[in-house]
Amino acid sequence: MHKNWASFPKTILATVVTAVLPACATHVGTVNQAAAPAIATPAPLPLPALSIPEQPSTAVMPKTDNTCISNVAFPNFPRQYQERMQKIACHLQERDGLPASYVIPALQDASFNARAVALMTPPPPSATPAPPYPWWRYRNHFLRQNRLNQGVQFWRGHAALLQAVSRKYGVPGPILMGILNIETGFGSFQGGFSVLNSNLSLALALPGRRRFFLHQTAETLKLAQRLGVPPGTLQGSQAGAMGMSQFLASSYLRYGVTWNDPPDGPMPNLWQSPADVLASTANFFRGHGWQPGQPVLSRVSGDQGADVAPFLQGKHPLAQLRAAGIQPETASRLPGSTPVGLLRLQTERGPTLFIAYPNFYAIMGYNPSTYYSATVWAYAEAIKRVING
């Protein structure tokens, strides 16, 4: 069971470290599983880019029928955004069913965060694009010795819990540890941005993402209601991802679970409870198609002269790869109809082929980058070797 949520805001503020996060759309995210294993180029290290689903650039604020309360000022937002803030207030009331008595004070207490906008604004295209960043360098940042040491320490403190969560949800503990490693260094940096401020600011300043961040604004307000805390006290990343596993508000409400508590018990605490974090992350994977007992990724066995080009885009039945002479180093008993992808990732040995199984794409539901998903797998494999000696 958890501490009284009445003390929740002060607790969060006292324990969350202000940092720029390598968060996912959390959440983490609400992204759809990627259909094709096209390699995404990550941002330069030390931190990977935060991926947020693209929204149509033509997204506009919905029209209102003047039944909402909106003719008020929002003192902490620039004048240029006042009219749009009024439309957001109407949207939250009419489309999301939130009462004006809750929406208006919450938005008037919120403020525009220019730093969050700057961090989330893509750089302008360059006339001389930078060379592709190799996967192995991205991967190695998260497999450094200090990261492995953190994993060993986390395992020693939560081995029984990891095993119990794995039994219930079918997601191996090392995979869950791979997420916590990349997202927040096992909770050591969870972000110091107001989630509400970030979502509002990004909805205002990034037209192409307006619909997405407006939805997250509504979900943040609903989450704060459920938690019984002022909306402005929820802390997270510049993109609104929260807690040890960096869940967006929508994912928190949909996949967050309280470990070993009844369904009508307290809300999960994804900032401070490793049990809730692990169970919620595993529940997210299960909701994105995780298949217990199946592999994630496997190197292709040797160079057999197979024509791999037809398989480097999209997914294909495993039997077709086998028939073309593309065999994994580690054999599986999966049926030939299993849809898999073929990836070419840059390792220290040069371009290397991998077979990506359905569980690889379940991880991509967390962050739609092949680099990210492959690194979660690589960390899981590395931490297993360390733990097992």
Rg from C-alpha positions?
Answer: 22 Å
Q: Count of DSSP helices?
A: 14
H and E string: HHHHHHHEHHEHHEEHEEHH
Uncertain ranges: 1-23, 25-65
Largest sheet: 4 strands, antiparallel
On the 0 to 100 scale, the average pLDDT is 85
Determine the structural class based on helices, strands and strand pairing.
Answer: alpha+beta
Number of strands: 6
Question: How would you characterize this protein structure?
Answer:
By secondary structure, the protein is an alpha+beta fold. It has helices spanning 8-15, 82-94, 100-109, 114-120, 135-142, 145-169, 173-184, 195-205, 210-227, 249-255, 274-287, 318-323, 358-364, 370-387, and strands spanning 193-194, 235-236, 297-299, 316-317, 339-347, 350-356. It is built from 14 helices and 6 strands. Strand 5 and strand 6 form a beta hairpin. Helix 5 packs across helix 14 (370-387).
Task: Give the key terms.
389 residues; 6 strands; alpha+beta; globular; 6% strand; two-stranded antiparallel sheet; disordered N terminus
Short structural description:
The protein has 389 residues and is an alpha+beta fold. The protein has helices at 8-15, 82-94, 100-109, 114-120, 135-142, 145-169, 173-184, 195-205, 210-227, 249-255, 274-287, 318-323, 358-364, 370-387, and strands at 193-194, 235-236, 297-299, 316-317, 339-347, 350-356.
SSE topology:
Layout: H1 8-15, H2 82-94, H3 100-109, H4 114-120, H5 135-142, H6 145-169, H7 173-184, E1 193-194, H8 195-205, H9 210-227, E2 235-236, H10 249-255, H11 274-287, E3 297-299, E4 316-317, H12 318-323, E5 339-347, E6 350-356, H13 358-364, H14 370-387
Antiparallel strand pairs: 1-2, 3-6, 4-5, 5-6
Helix pairs in contact: 2-3, 4-8, 5-14, 6-7, 6-11, 6-14, 7-14, 8-9, 9-10, 10-11, 13-14
